[in-house]
Amino acid sequence: MLLPHNNSPVIGKEAIRSGYKTFLDQFSIKGTSEIAELEVAGDWAFMRGTYTTTVIAKAGGQPVEEDHGNWLWIVKRQRDCSWKIFRAIGVSEPLVTEVRAPAVPETSKHGR
Asked: Which of 1, 78, 81, 110 has the most CB atoms less than 10 A away?
């Protein structure tokens, strides 16, 4: 199961494969990812980290999307000892361009 941001869950290997194929036929992705935490408990594990991506149309032109954020994967050990993604979620971090402190109301000297 894939839980993409701003979309419904994508369930099943074929649905995930088909969605990626359709996307990757039209776009290329450049990016980086870094693991911040990894925990293993028997045949289960979770990993979380950060990512940055740039999506570029294969037809050319400027990047159509630049994104960065956090991800979390839950993985399961298979019989052949490989690990496969069981659940995955990615969350974009909005770019903050300006931070404003909330207005504080003035009080009178008498506390009224």
From this structure: 1
